[in-house]
Amino acid sequence: MIKQKNRIRSFALLLAGFWTIAIAISFAWLYHHEKNSVVEVARAEARASFGKDTLFRRWGNWHGGVYVAVTEATLPNPYLAHIPERDITTPSGKRLTLINPAYMMRQVFELADGRGDMIRGHITSLKPLRPENTPDAWEANALRQFENGVQEVSEVQKVGDHEHLRLMRPFMAEEGCLKCHGGQGYKVGDVRGGVSVSVSLENKEGYAKSAVGFGLLSYGMLWLFGMGLILAGAGILSRNLSILEQSEERYRTVADYTADWEYWQGLDGSFKYISPSCKEISDYSHDEFHDDPGLIERIVHPDDQAALDDHAHAAKKGESHSLDFRIVRRDGEVRWISHVCQKVYTSDGAENGIRASNRDITDRKKAEAAVKEQALLLENEVRERMVREVELEAKNAELERFTYTVSHDLKSPLITIKGFAGAVLKDIEAGKLSRLDSDVKRIMGAADKMAALLSDLLELSRIGRIMNPPSKIDLNLLAQEVLGQLSGPISQGGVEVVLQPGLPEVWGDAPRIAEVLQNLVENAVKYMGEQLQPLVEIGVREGEGEQVFWVRDNGMGIAEQYRETVFGLFNKLDPHSEGTGIGLALARRIVEFHDGRLWVESEGPGLGSTFCFTLGNKRPDAGDTAIKGGTT
C-alpha cells in the first residue's frame, strides 16, 4: 500500500510538472505572438508609409515637379541646374524654384525627423549625388540585395535608445528621375536606390508588455487553479487509498491468517487472490500459482481428476457443492482436500470468476479410516465371537452327543464282553466246554467293534491337526486306487462302478481326499437296499465358478428331512446297519478343511442319492509334487 501512495505522489508530481510545462509553453507562445504582433504592426505601418511615399513621388513625377518659393530652407536644387526654367519669377516678382519628387520627399523626411512619434524615412543609393544620401551599413547591404532581385528587406534594430523596425524597398528609376540621374547611366526601371523606413517600437512594445502582463496574470491564475486541482485530486486519491488500505487490511487479516486455502480465480483462469496458507497445504507458494495458473490442476491426484472436472463444470453452471479429493504435494505426500466453490458476481451482476476454499482434511480422513478400521475390526471380532459361540455351541452339542454316543456305543460291547466273559467262567466251572468257542467269538466281535469305534474317533480328532502338505492330485488315479481298495465289498454287493473319464487335477491332501472318496463309495455300496442292478458313478460337473465332484448311486435315497442329519456324528439312517456313523462326518470335515463344501442331493427314498463336494484347490507355498497314485 505504501507503494501505491508513492505512485500517487509520483503521478501527482509528474502531472504538476506537465501542467507547469504546458502553462509555460502556452505563455511563451503568447509572449512570442505579442512580440511578433508588435513587429508585424510596425512592418505594416512601414509598408503603408512606403506606399504613401511612393504615391507622393509618382504624383510629383507625373507633374514634372512643382515650383515653390525660394527660402533659406528651400534653395534651388543645384542638381537641376541644367534644366531650363529651373528658377522663375512671378509677375509680382516672387522667385520660384523647381523641386523634383526626391527633393520633396527629402524635405518631408526632414520634417518627420523632427517628430519623435513619426515614421522616419531616408532616400539612399549606392551612387548618391548628395552626400546626405549615403547609405549606412544596413542600407548598403539591403541595396546590394535589391540588385539581386530582392524586393524588401526588414529587420528590428536598436536606433538610439529604442528598438525600431527598419524596412527598405528598392527605388526604381522613372522618367522624372533621369533629370538628375540621367548622367549616371540609369535607365527607366533600373534600381536607382531605395527608401528605408524606420518605425519606433517603443509605444507598441508598451502595448505588448501590457498584453503579456495580463497574459502572465491569467496564466498564473490558471496554473494555480490547475495545481490546486492536482493537489486536491492527489489528496482525495490518498484518502481513498487509506480507506481502501484499512478495508484491505481487515480483509487480509481475515483471509491471510485463515488455515484454509482460499483463492479467487478470474474468468480467464488467472488468480486474483490466493491466501498464503496454500504453501502449508500444497508446498507451493502463492507466487508459483500466480505465475502458473495450471499448477492447481496438475497437483490433483490422477484418480480424482475426473471427479474434480465434473465438479468444475457444475460450478460454472451455478451449482455449488463440496467435493473431497486428493492432491500430491511437491514432496510427493498425498493430502486430502475438502473443496467448495461458487461463482461470484460484480455489483452490477456481471460474472466475475470463481471463489473457492480448500481445507486440509487429511487428519480427519485418517481418523475416519482408523475409526472405520476399528469398527470393521470390532465387527469382525463380534462376528468371529458369534461364529465361535455358534461353533462352540455346536461343538458342545456334538460333544454332548459324542459323549452320550461313545458311552452308549462303548458300553454295549463292554456289556457284551462282560456278560459272555461271565458265561465263559461259568461254563468252565461247569465243564461245559462245547459253548466256549461261540462265547469267545462273541467277546472278540465286541472287542473288534470297540476298536473300530476308537479308530474312527481317533481319525476324526486328527482332522485339522495332522494334515499332509497340499500337492497336485490326479483324481483319475486316486479314484481308481480307492476303487481297488474297495473291490471286495463292491464285488460282494454285485455293484457296478462307472468312473467318468477326464477327472481334473486338484490341489490338496491326497490321503484325506482319498478318505472322502472311500467313505462316499462305501456309503453308496452299503445303502443299496433291494436294488437289483446296483450302480455307483463317480464324476465332475461345472458349478458357479467352481468344479463340483459327485458320487451317485441308485440305492435307498434320502428323505429331505435327513439330508443334513446324515452328516452328524454317529448318525445312521439304519441303526442296525454296520458302521460307526462317523464316515460322513469325517468326510465333511476333510472337505471343509480344504475350503470346500459337502452336501447330498436326492429326489427321495428309493430314488438314489448324489453326494457332491467342492475343493478350494489350495496350492502349496513351494514344491509341485504330482500324485500318480492315490496316497503318499
Automatic annotation (TrEMBL):
Domain PAS: 247-319
UniProt key word Protein biosynthesis: no
Reactions catalysed: ATP + protein L-histidine = ADP + protein N-phospho-L-histidine
Keyword tags: Kinase, Membrane, Phosphoprotein, Transferase, Transmembrane, Transmembrane helix
PROSITE patterns: HIS_KIN, PAC, PAS
A Pfam family matched in the record: HisKA
E.C. designation(s): 2.7.13.3
Residue ranges constituting the PAC domain according to the UniProt record: 321-373
One Gene Ontology MF term: phosphorelay sensor kinase activity
UniProt-listed CDD domains: HisKA (cd00082), PAS (cd00130)
Record-linked SUPFAM superfamilies: ATPase domain of HSP90 chaperone/DNA topoisomerase II/histidine kinase, Homodimeric domain of signal transducing histidine kinase, PYP-like sensor domain (PAS domain)
Histidine kinase domain sequence ranges: 405-619
Gene3D superfamilies registered for this protein in UniProt: 1.10.287.130, 3.30.450.290, Histidine kinase-like ATPase, C-terminal domain, PAS domain
Protein name from the UniProt record: histidine kinase
Organism: Geobacter sp. (strain M21)
